[in-house]
Design a protein that fits this description.
single chain, alpha+beta, DNA Binding (I), subunit A, 5-stranded mixed beta sheet, two-stranded antiparallel sheet, 14% strand, disordered N terminus
Amino acid sequence: MTRALQQTDPLVALSRAHALLDQLQALDPTGLDEHALLDYWRELERLRRRIPSLEHPLVLEVEGRDLPGVHQVRTAGQFLRGLLRLDPAEAAGRVKAARAAGARRAISGQPLPPAYAELAVAQQHGDISERQARVVVDTIERLPDQVRAEHGAAVERDLVRYARQFDPIGLGRLAERIAAYYDPDGRLTDVGYREKHRDLTIKQRVDGSCSFKGEGTAELAEVLLLHLDALAKPKPEVDGVKDPRTAGQRRHDALLEGLKLTVRAKVLPAINGVTATVLLTMTADDFATRRGLAGTGHGALLPVAEAMRITGNEYRLMTVVLDQTKGIAGYSSSHRLFTESQRLALCAVDRGCTFPNCPAPPGWCQIDHALEFARGGPTSTDNGVLACRYHNNDAKKQGWTSARINGRAAWIPPRWIDAEQKPRYNLLHDPGPPP
């Protein structure tokens, strides 16, 4: 116990501290200007960060007196949990933090500096948070003993300095880089561990949707993130309306698009002698009425309307229609993709997404069959228009249809938007007058 605590009753000092906090709680921040408001908040955070340094000696004193044993509790963490009504993980974390940054005593009673002296000083001054302190300690303690003995002090000094500049996430990234520098062999161990434990599990539901979980190697992460960088960007604003998708939805759509690109490229190995093909099966009646269910090649059941929407996408897909006796009443050609020459010709003519006011360039576009391929529409330049994925899918859901009128791409609005359904053109790419 320090001389100050020996001369001052701790409960009296805490009573004064509570009185000061009462004054702060009564403070109305609406009367502060911006500069004063932010200064007050920073100092309040510094006060919050100093509190753990007051608790560290209490934890160590409890351990030194073996109060857990006295009260028939196995560990100091369990003792704190019962005394302070803490979550088990939080109680264990406080004990670990106290052992790292609290002032210690030798068996003889002589005072010893904290195990992490630089960290302790930073916490006493309120410069770093508990989370940042955990990053520092965890990083050093993961180093091999020899590396920690030789370089632990330098790593602590650097990380505490960075903690005064970066939040816990940024500090964690820097900590990983520093640990990799001092322990490069540890990276190789991590690689072997990740390679051994790589895993992907996909659970498909009856409706065809799925959930998945897994563990990926660094290579998978890098290639996946590369796809997301290229495909998960928000779509350009249209008439001041931003892309409505969340970041998670954009990542989902990007993964789907990347997989579809692979199927389109026909680089997947054959499956039992057949080129990898998405297969949908339905009855003739359901095909005609667009009702009922369609079966997928993996046994899922989709509404026929959704199956027909899927057939509007440009990748290798075959629709098989069965009559009442399950004989084949008809099937689509799986070769529904536009050729490279056709694509280049349409890019030259349409110059980008043809939906009104969409700025998407040709590289972001698919080719939409004006008359749906599933309804017999030919794969020809007269029946194709450039459309970004959003308008090729979502605009169709809203009731829009595409067409070529006198060779020019047009979109016909649904009646709920325009009762007369007058064709509309994208003047951003093709400023000429409507035909």
